[in-house]
Amino acid sequence: MANVLAFAEQRDGQIGSTAREAVGVAASLADSLGEEAHALAFGGVGLSGSAGLLGGFGAAAIAVGEHALLADYNPEAYVDLVAEHVKNGGYSAVVFPASTLGKDLAPRVAAKLDVPLASDATAVSVNEGAISVTRPVFSGKAFARVEIAARPAIVSIRPNVFQPHERSAAGTVSTFSPDVDPSSWRVRVVERRGASGDQLDVTEASIIVSGGRGMKDPDNWTILEELRDAIGPDVALGASRAVVDAGWRPHGEQVGQTGKTVAPKLYVAVGISGAVQHLAGMRTAKTIVAINRDADAPIFGVADYGIVGDLFEIVPKLTEEIAALKQGD
After folding, report:
1. What is the pLDDT of residue 144?
2. Are 105 and 187 in contact (CB under 8 A)?
């Protein structure tokens, strides 16, 4: 019987949210197809210790390839190993996260298997035995629905769109040592540099305070930092593409079509007009608050709460009120 495979991305030896999302989608497809959901992960020695949690999200079997040379992602090593595993398993479908890693790996695997790729999916279902995918086109201005006739069907899913739900499965972990030959690699990781400080990543934050060109100057970001600090520790700073392109903020904070897709409980957009590329990355937030002096700004079209006015007056007052409320607690 064919099954559905989820590629489980790891970072620093830990299985993250993108892996849980991929397994959740694979489990949903498997249920509709009458199959099982399996997971595949590659990393350094000891990865199997954290991979077992995927059984709680629907993975009946979890294969973990451990090798010291696989601790860091290498496209030339990973693509051959993943493609070989898919072939040997006879899978009907493979689900990748459309993360930075997944956007590099999924098309390579699809090319290796000589099948098409439906990338950046925002909805995946089964229609009369065929896998149907909804994905944004034209920078999120429209959505295309496609059915994948090829087998295996290769799909990458947009991060933070498919919220993983706990579901019981066998979660049997099998560890193996892949054959790795670095002599043929043309690409190697020689150094890794993380963002300075211990700032929370926007994809992991439950609350995001994001700024745009309305901030006028990078030095004014202290206003947003003070608001972030007043709200609490689970808050990350975000930024629009225009701000990042101008060099005001690092690319790691960029939210949008060419940045990161987020789905926090609360998204505060300050001085962001709401271009369609930005909306594509944050419109799935549960609650959106917009602060902008332009009453006709597109951001108000998706906002749950909107404040029209001067952000340089509104945000400090908001920070002051939040701090006072927290002191009262």
Report:
1. 93
2. no
Ranges under pLDDT 50 in the chain: none
Q: What does the block give as tokens for 147?
A: 């059915």
Pick the CATH number of 4-184 from 3.30.870.10, 3.30.470.20, 3.40.50.620, 3.30.420.40: 3.40.50.620
Buried b (16+ CB within 10 A) or exposed e, 158-172: bbbbbebeebebebe
Q: Which residues pair with 222 in a beta bridge?
A: none
Instruction: Please tell me whether the peptide bond between 152 and the residue prior to it is cis, using omega within 30 degrees of 0.
Output: yes
Q: How far apart are CA 157 and CA 135, in angstroms?
A: 9
How many residues make up the chain in this entry? 329
Q: Which of 48, 49, 60, 65 is nearest to 23 (CA)?
A: 60
Q: Computed from CA positions of residues 293, 296, 300, 305, in that sequence, does the dihedral angle turn out positive or negative?
A: positive
pLDDT at 39: 97
Query: Please, what is the angle between helix 100-113 and helix 75-89, to 10°?
Result: 50
Task: Judge contact between 226 and 255, C-beta under 8 A.
Answer: no
Give the domain ranges of the chain: 4-184, 207-328
Sign of the CA dihedral 150, 156, 161, 167? positive
